[in-house]
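Input (structure):
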């Protein structure tokens, strides 16, 4: 009859081998899962930063165009000569820069009709100002009502960029407790972005 302690030793060794094998397989899987989780968070942070940057660039480009339109109107009202060919060419360059910035691939899920509408409003204002300069509507030293109206419409349409940036920031800051627990299962993130 076998010795009881030898049998217990054999059971202990077998149990140890099972636990060791489980840890050898399960441990790296858990580490890989955590690593993928942190990489996903880093990608989300990069996408957020890229979207805010692209929206800011679009806002800047359309602002430069809007400022150019206002400067041209001010010069025309002051009686300065406005070269229509140069004005049209500069507006075309501003339109191209604006389109390039607002149609960045990272803005596909942020963009909407209103973003495109801001460029359309600026283009419409450019066309109205061109007609007003050609028609000598500024000769009286006053801004024609139609020009003032289209500039106001363009300014209102440009607010889409600020609103879109504010929506992105609000969505990022609106983490619920449940989302926080899902994103940071190990606790509050430290300065390096990892859970403490």
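Output (sequence):
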């Amino acid at each position: 009859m076998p010795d009881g302690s030898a049998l217990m030793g054999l059971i202990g060794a077998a149990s140890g081998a099972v636990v060791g094998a489980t840890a050898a397989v399960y441990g790296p899987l858990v580490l890989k899962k955590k690593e993928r989780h942190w990489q996903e968070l880093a990608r989300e942070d990069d996408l957020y930063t890229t979207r805010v940057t692209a929206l800011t660039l679009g806002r800047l480009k359309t602002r430069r165009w809007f400022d150019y339109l206002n400067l041209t109107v001010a010069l025309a009202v002051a009686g300065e000569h406005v070269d229509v060919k140069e004005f049209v060419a500069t507006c075309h360059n501003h339109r191209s820069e604006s389109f390039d910035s607002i149609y960045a691939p990272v803005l596909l899920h942020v963009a909407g009709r209103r973003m495109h509408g801001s460029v359309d409003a600026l283009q419409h204002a450019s066309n109205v100002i061109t007609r007003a300069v050609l028609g000598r509507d500024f000769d009286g030293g006053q801004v024609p009502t139609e020009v003032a109206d289209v500039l106001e419409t363009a300014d209102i349409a440009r607010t889409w960029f600020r609103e879109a940036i504010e929506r992105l920031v609000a969505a990022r800051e609106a983490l619920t407790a449940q989302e926080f627990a899902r994103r940071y299962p190990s606790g509050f993130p430290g300065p390096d972005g990892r859970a403490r």
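Notes: The radius of gyration is 31 Å. The first helix runs from residue 4 to 77.
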